């Protein structure tokens, strides 16, 4: 049998920002040494949205895949470290909990740690689930250290991500991509031409220049110039599950040393974020316009921020959901062009990276086998639905009924996929998660425990373990985590000594 190839030789990324330059930096590294030429067209008139300034641990995998030095990246983006998210006022007013990164506890004889912990509670233990999470204790104590120094210690199972300045990040990624050979064209797109198959053939720029390519990547933000305005793939609107449809964002000067976590505080008609960087703090209010006007939201945000304003507040409208097809014909959508889920769990940049990973797996040739497109879209559908359900979990489990917004959330319709997951968990604390899911069992346990949801019983096979020895083991583990944490430098000290902004 003779094998023939019809390889793609050119990629055109339309739109810059975080998504566009992440794609350019990663793909230019992956395809280095091949005949593939990458061009990126970005407008000088369109600023980066700059809301997604918090990441999840998969971002560290992106940096590694793109061969980017994390220390240099943090210095170039005024980055800080993120051990998790602190949720305030979600379950009830004046109640707070943490969603830490990494694992909680260690399994024993094949038994999930959460089940072990449940048994100790039944025996009278008063330990918190978070006492067994290295990242949670590090976050509470404002301590930090990179993972290389924590191997073979009680803190080895922690995880971390970054807070970053989105504009500075795009600028840094642009430099990396251009060093890898990416051609940057600064212009706006005037028109898009299709061939006889209705595949994208070329784009024409404002100056009349045509840019042709074998494959196009749409990073044009909410408008989706290629994927929606040209190819008309359609949009799945999830507003019935997630009613927030606007955000107001503002930057402030830092008020004190930045903590190693994001803060998400529930408000009357949504929630506010606080993302600490080395040189400033990012703030915003995600809200539902059915319950709050732009002026009311802006004032509520200004009342909540700490530090002097660095810029003027700006309103960002959005529709929660995703494109019906994220890859269609010879076009892939990334970032806001592919869909939008409110940044409650900082998943926007993760979904860009996941889109790139899945695209590289299914990378086509010029024959564009439709099966590759189908497999990609099926995987991305699962990724979006997983994140959607995890975000809904924060709302539908609230006990707040002090505003119309929270009464709606408390009594909201929830998807069948989430209903089934919660029903199984409530029985005896078991969760069904896919190994490719972003949120593993530790993440689900963190939110469920934070929202005061516990199962009716633990798994019966846990009774085969000696209860006294089990309790002693868990107590010793929690003590070791706390003692090891207190030996670490503070988050601020670590940044100052190792990766301060230049």
From TrEMBL:
Q: What is its EC number?
A: 1.14.19.9
Write one Pfam family the protein is assigned to: Trp_halogenase
Which key words are in the record? Oxidoreductase
**Molecular functions (GO terms):** oxidoreductase activity
- Broadest EC class? oxidoreductase
- Domain of life of the organism encoding this protein: Bacteria
Which PANTHER family does the protein's record reference?
Answer: FAD-BINDING PROTEIN, FLAVIN-DEPENDENT TRYPTOPHAN HALOGENASE
Name of the featured protein? Tryptophan halogenase
Which organism was this protein described from? Answer: Cellvibrio fibrivorans
For this protein's source organism, the top of the classification is: Bacteria, Pseudomonadati, Pseudomonadota, Gammaproteobacteria, Cellvibrionales
